[in-house]
Amino acid sequence: MAEHGAGGRDGAVTEAVRVLRAAGRAAVPWKNGGGITREIAAHPESAGMDDFAWRVSLADVRADGPFSAFPEVDRTLTVVEGAGMDLTVGGVRTLVDERFVPKDFAGDAATDCRLLDGPVVNFNVMYRRGRTDVTTAVVRGRIVVDVPPGATVLVVALDGPASVAGHELKPYDAVLATSGTLGVLHAAGRTALVTLRPTAA
Fold this sequence. Notes:
Blueprint: E1 2-4, E2 17-20, E3 28-29, E4 36-43, E5 54-61, E6 65-66, E7 73-81, E8 85-89, E9 92-96, E10 103-106, E11 111-115, E12 120-128, E13 132-146, E14 152-157, E15 162-164, E16 167-169, E17 174-177, E18 181-198
Antiparallel strand pairs: 1-2, 2-17, 3-4, 4-5, 5-12, 6-11, 7-10, 7-12, 8-9, 8-11, 13-18, 14-17, 14-18, 15-16, 15-18
């Protein structure tokens, strides 16, 4: 369910802002059926697994096995729960054993996962190569969040509460903004800050 804002604390301008609550977010199978994913936001909103420009989700990884293949897609993966994974991406081993540290890799490279010590939850940003430029950061503290011209900014509380543009966020709640400024983000816990821009022609 999305909430709309039209004013906020710290002088925030909150037009074109939506709040995306974690409660009730649908769990659907991975593209290859090997796990569960919960979509936070995507563009276009009606896009499926094969035609999004970008997609941000939380993915539950409960067993060893291959990741889904996404042709012409790049990914940024951040472990937010669990001990981590030993990935083999395009034949190259990549140890992902530190939470809240974004890792970039190609979504169309064959990727096999071995869990280090039980299930994990990943914050997953996927974007179509050549269509979208993306930066993903995990932040904490008091930060002014602007929305660059033509960009979309997604703020997602991860392991603790956050507040921005007058909205209180519990873990995995999100705010999506497409113009102006979100004002001051107060992140008591680690919070993902994703900026998505269409690639210049």
